[in-house]
Amino acid sequence: METITVQVVIDAATEKVWDFWTKPEHITQWTHASDDWHAPYAENDVRTGGKFKTTMAAKDGSFSFDFEGTYIEVKTYNLLEYILEDSRKVKIDFIKEGDKTKVIETFDPEGTNPVEMQKGGWQAILDNFKKYTETN
């Protein structure tokens, strides 16, 4: 199965981008694809073999799920690779471009939803991350 890639260029230093991506107090502020969702809980042990979990929930309380996995490679300020609970792999590259940072996420699609829907959802979350990081 082919992987899906989403990316964004953020007007911020790589160190700030890394911190906002990895620290739970920031993760809960940007991890949602639309304004009727939020992330009320996040934990993150950023090291090879470490685990993470983010709870994503509809603001009206109708639905929630935990997005969780285990890091298989961590290179501070450069790379995060992890395996999700359903065995899909995700790779996130952080690339310094002058005073900006390009974030590229490549992930294995799940088999339930159309690829374009998955790509759109992950891109929306990445766009929220860009907006949050650039305005805080």
UniProtKB/TrEMBL annotation:
Activator of Hsp90 ATPase homologue 1/2-like C-terminal domain residues: 11-133
Stored CDD domains: SRPBCC_CalC_Aha1-like_4
UniProt cross-references to InterPro entries, sorted A to Z: ASHA1/2-like_C, START-like_dom_sf
Family: Belongs to the AHA1 family.
UniProt name for this protein: Putative conserved protein YndB, AHSA1/START domain
Native source species: Mucilaginibacter xinganensis
Source lineage: Bacteria, Pseudomonadati, Bacteroidota, Sphingobacteriia, Sphingobacteriales
